[in-house]
Specification:
heterotrimer; A mainly alpha (478); B alpha/beta (234); C mainly alpha (292); A: 2 domains; three-stranded mixed beta sheet; 22 helices; 5 strands; globular; C: 292 residues; mainly alpha; ABC transporter involved in vitamin B12 uptake, BtuC; disordered C terminus
């Protein structure tokens, strides 16, 4: 830490190294755990992405907002709509791929976040919380307003653009060059035999996200060779992939499902796409290219793909957040939070600072929303309402309001605690009514306890312990 | 009589009052004067219970009121008129006044209110107006009136001259001085404006950096050139 | 035109409930300068208590009284456990803490009473009254709602303007230090404010439950409407809360009548945003007076 502070010029390099190493470790982890845990890993990474924004907004800038769930919905909807309707990028005519949808999801978040943020900058604490509460509660109403476009209450099933171009980098590392540009979709309804026995991988309980959980696409196992044509991709957009987790034994059947392999174009323009991924894909392929990652046999496991995609987005966002938080902008946010008048005196615009925090957190939220939509293969108002916003608030408060590490810990808690309760409930035989509500009861109580007893959350408390220990050490020395 | 014994107050590392011994006898005005930061306001807030002293005692007629809550201290007979805007603009004049003695029985309250109206007739005239329509001088009278509604044995006035025209200040302070004599209450007046304060006071106390530099008859202090130059800046 | 009048009439009883919730928010704001985002959650919880009482005793009046008592107690409990310790140290934390209470209350209610929406019987007929040859969009129950609300509002107004307790509470709200120096036990006034707010919200919950059904989350939207009304009214003003509470109810009724009830939250949101932009201190706000 000291070295980081004493060489501010090298900070960005350091951050890149830290994030790169973490990324690598996460990919290694992802490739060596049971796919069920990969599914959890994907959720943790998704929550962490959104919560980095909460660190900046709530922790650093001191604005309590419940709008970030809604901004995740913005990202999810933009991702879904662009990936379903675009073959090329409008105005530019470039060939569409999933990275473009991510970019536009982010832009959508920035746009809506900028509007809300512009309002928010004029508001003090409770007013902002109340206004954004209205936004969170209003999400279903807004989606219902445009039933044709946004699918109303039922939301949209989206065809997840499985590995293609830039995304391939996140999957198999060194094998990127072997990836084709097509989009993998499994023809639904032809694989009934495969679904049942693979429930073990697909049993991840997503009920808390949405009432329509049975319509989630939960697992698609394909080999890398099973690439589909663009036409298939389009056709798939009307339908949804159900539960296509195939075991290796099923592999043979998988290829017999009538999936068109003709479009598989090994060695296509994957390289170019990777480069287009903000350079991050490139970094990744360099890191992974050395064969450090033992790419998982030759099969495509959807949970692993989801996790590596979510991890990639989380790491890129983490890198941006690290540089912002530990750089000048982080100090500006804190200055305005602690004393807006004093900040204004030294030439910082308090409202500008608040808007920028809002926009950055909206960007992160929208990206997380796009990731979430891909994990769920679904986007709808139920999964992105007040409950999600409150979850983000809970996570950031428990983890540590003003710390990026706190955001990660909060994300872990959000995924782990319900599973813990679920496990306990299974052992003890609690009624469903108790099991379903226990996590939220715990969250609510924990939030109150943390605010009262340890406002710094988990990371803040550890930090103060460490500081105390250091202080004692120094005292005895002198 | 209100008096303090070795009263010390500090805010963190800064010691605002250092072992202060002070006596405020009944029936007269005692003026505490000193420059900004001398500890005058801290003294008042400590006496009224808003600030807790580290050491020492505050005694009212021999009974300790040290460390008690402000709402209890005022009920025991020490009423503070704080510095600046101490009326509540959202309430009517009559409500501001009534607020001063809500815990008392009705007869006692009516009697005190009559006394206040006798002392400050302008308040009786404007009884039903909102407090934010009053002039600065009227508001100060209202604030003093509210404190008198508690039927205090000791009245603490913190910088009543702040933001008021000198003529009005003199008028108000002379009324207070008369009140002290007639009703035998102890008045402690804290002022930056030493000339006016010493004119109505019987005893003067000069405060500097939290310590009593000099205490004595008001006239003696106002004629002490050296003291004036060193601590009072005129 | 008949439609317009009908929609308008139909909005009054909902408006009355929004007014009660807004009143609860304002009462808390006046006593502790904070918005209790758990307010409507507390009302939800006490409404479940009332439901249990009604189901076992069959008495609506008893259910209402028990709900008020429960609201009073819950207000005091939340104040002591959460608000008092956090209030001064950390204003962001205080807002977050009220959301923590909301989450816990909703989960707690789900644990005890389950997540499925439950009906609440009305004490009197809830179908349109037939009068002068047509059926009006107002029921006997709506009239009961309005009467109970009016009684509560008049009671609160008298309490605040005519009694010493009311004066103490107002003084404690506007200037705690001067209040303390005047002998007012400010902490007790804050607790009283929270308790009265809890009871007021509880009445609102019991009144709306038969119309909306009750589930742990069913009052979320009411929180948005009530907050909107309270903020437009100036957060400080009881009259403002009542006026704009009923106003919000009427607007929602009109919007629902002419378009779709699903649009009501959007309209509330637009109203709130416009108000915060154009008149941040609310229509009946005291800000001007305070800055003098």
């Amino acid at each position: 830490m000291k070295t980081l502070r004493s060489f501010p010029g090298n900070r960005i390099v350091w951050h890149a190294i830290i994030v790169g190493v973490v990324w690598l470790l996460l990919l290694l982890l992802n490739n060596n755990i049971d796919p069920l845990y990969s599914a959890y890993l994907a959720l943790v990474a998704m929550y962490a992405t959104a919560m980095f924004g909460m660190t900046i907004l709530v922790g650093l800038s001191g604005q309590v907002s419940l709008g970030n769930g809604a901004l995740m919905a913005v990202g999810g909807y933009v991702f879904a709509l662009t990936s379903m309707n675009w073959q090329t990028v409008p105005f530019f005519g470039w060939e569409w791929n999933a990275v473009w949808s991510m970019v536009f999801a982010g832009l959508g978040g920035v746009l809506i976040g900028g509007i809300i943020g512009g309002l928010a900058a004029r508001l003090k604490g409770p007013y902002l919380a109340g206004l954004t509460l209205g936004v969170a509660v209003g999400v279903p109403a807004i989606t219902n307003r445009f039933p044709e476009l946004l699918g109303g209450e039922n939301g949209l099933m989206l065809t997840v653009p499985y590995p293609a171009g830039g995304y391939a980098a996140m999957d198999a590392g060194g094998e990127i060059a072997g990836e084709a540009d097509g989009d993998v979709v499994v023809d639904p309804g032809t694989d009934e035999g495969a679904t049942g026995e693979d429930q073990q991988y697909a049993e991840l309980d997503l009920t808390e996200f949405d009432q329509g959980n049975d319509s989630f696409a939960e697992g698609d196992l394909l080999t890398e060779g099973d690439l589909l044509t663009e036409e298939n991709f389009d056709a798939g957009s009307d339908q949804f992939a159900e539960d296509d987790l195939l075991t290796e034994e099923d592999f043979g059947t998988g290829t017999d499902l009538g999936i068109d392999e003709t479009a598989a174009d090994p060695g296509g323009d994957a390289g170019g796409d990777a480069a287009g991924f903000d350079g991050a894909g490139q970094d990744e392929s360099e890191l992974a290219g050395g064969g450090l990652i033992d790419a998982f046999d030759s099969e495509f496991i959807i949970e692993r793909w989801q996790a590596s995609m979510a991890i990639a987005v989380a790491c890129i966002v983490a890198f941006a957040a690290l540089n912002l938080v530990r750089g000048r902008q982080g100090r500006v946010w804190k200055a305005v939070r602690d004393d807006p008048v004093a900040a204004a005196v030294v030439g910082i615009s308090p409202s500008g600072s608040k808007v920028s925090a809002f926009v950055v957190s909206s960007l992160f939220a929208a990206l997380a929303g796009a990731v979430f939509a891909q994990i769920l293969s679904f986007i709808g108002p139920g999964a992105f309402g007040l409950g999600l916003s409150l979850s983000l608030l809970v996570g950031i408060v428990l983890g540590g309001r003003a710390s990026l590490l706190g955001a990660i810990i909060g994300a872990l808690l959000l995924v782990w605690l319900p599973e813990l309760v679920d496990g306990l409930s299974g052992e003890r035989g609690w009624p469903e009514q108790i099991t379903n509500n226990a996590p939220n009861l715990l969250y609510g109580l924990l939030v109150v306890v943390v605010v009262l007893a340890a406002p710094g959350g988990i990371t803040g408390t550890f930090k103060s312990w460490i500081d105390k220990a250091k202080g004692r050490g120094r005292a005895t020395l002198s | 009589m209100l008096h303090t014994e070795d009263l010390s107050v500090s805010y963190g590392a800064v010691q605002a009052l250092k072992s202060m011994n002070l006596a405020v006898p009944r029936g007269e005005v005692t003026a505490v004067i000193g420059a900004n930061g001398a500890g005058k306001s801290t003294l008042m807030r400590t006496l009224a219970g808003l600030v807790r002293p580290q050491t020492g005692q505050v005694l009212l007629d021999g009974v300790s009121i040290t460390g008690k809550k402000p709402e209890d201290i005022v009920r025991m007979g020490v009423a503070l008129v704080p510095e600046g805007r101490s009326t509540i603009p959202e309430l009517s004049l009559e409500e501001n006044l009534r607020l001063g003695g809500l815990w008392r029985d009705k007869a006692g309250r009516m009697e005190s209110q009559q006394k206040v109206f006798d002392l400050f007739p302008i308040l009786a005239e404007r009884k039903n107006m909102r407090a934010d329509t009053l002039s600065g001088g009227e508001r100060q009278q209202l604030a003093i009136g509210r404190a008198l509604m508690s039927d205090p044995r000791c009245l603490l006035l913190d910088e009543p001259s702040l933001g008021l025209a000198p003529l009005i200040v003199t008028q108000i302070l002379e009324l207070v001085s008369r009140l002290a004599k007639e009703t035998n209450i102890a008045v402690l007046l804290v002022e930056q404006n030493a000339v006016t304060a010493l004119r109505v006071a019987t005893t003067g106390v000069v405060l500097n950096l939290g310590e009593v530099v000099k205490a004595g008859p008001a006239q003696e202090i106002s004629s002490d050139e050296e003291l004036r130059h060193a601590y009072l800046g005129y | 035109m008949t439609n317009f009048v009908d929609y308008l009439l139909g909005g009054f009883s909902n408006g009355a409930v929004i007014a009660l919730m807004a009143l609860a928010i304002v009462l808390v704001w006046r006593s502790t300068r904070m918005v209790n985002f758990a307010q409507v959650g507390q009302a939800m919880f006490t409404t479940y208590v009332a439901l249990t009482v009604q189901q076992s005793s069959g008495s609506w009046v008893l259910a209402l009284v028990v709900a008020m008592a429960a609201g009073l107690v819950l207000g005091i409990v939340v104040f002591f456990l959460v608000i008092r310790p956090v209030k001064n140290s950390d204003s962001t934390g205080a807002i977050i803490a009220t959301f923590g209470v909301l989450i816990a209350l909703q989960a707690g209610a789900g644990m005890i009473w389950g997540g499925d929406p439950q009906g609440f019987l009305t004490p009197v007929d809830n179908s349109g009254i037939e009068f002068a040859g047509r059926i009006w969009p107002i029921s006997l129950y709506d009239i009961l709602v309005l009467v109970v609300t009016a009684a509560l509002v008049i009671g609160l107004t008298l309490l605040f303007t005519k009694t010493n307790l009311g004066l103490s509470m107002r003084a404690a709200a506007f200037n705690p230090e001067v209040a303390r120096l005047s002998g007012v036990r400010v902490n007790r006034m804050l607790i009283t404010g929270w308790a009265i707010a809890g009871a007021t919200g509880a009445v609102g919950g019991v009144l709306i439950a038969p119309v909306s059904t009750i589930s742990p989350n069913s009052f979320d939207i009411l929180l948005v409407f009530a907050f909107t009304a309270a903020v437009i009214g100036g957060l400080d003003s009881l009259i403002g809360a009542v006026t704009f509470g009923i106003g919000t109810g009427l607007v929602i009724s009109l919007v629902s009548g002419y378009s779709d009830s699903g649009n009501a939250p959007i309209v509330a949101l637009v109203l709130l945003a416009l108000n915060l932009l154009l008149k941040p201190d609310g229509v009946f706000g005291h800000h001007g007076a305070r800055s003098v």
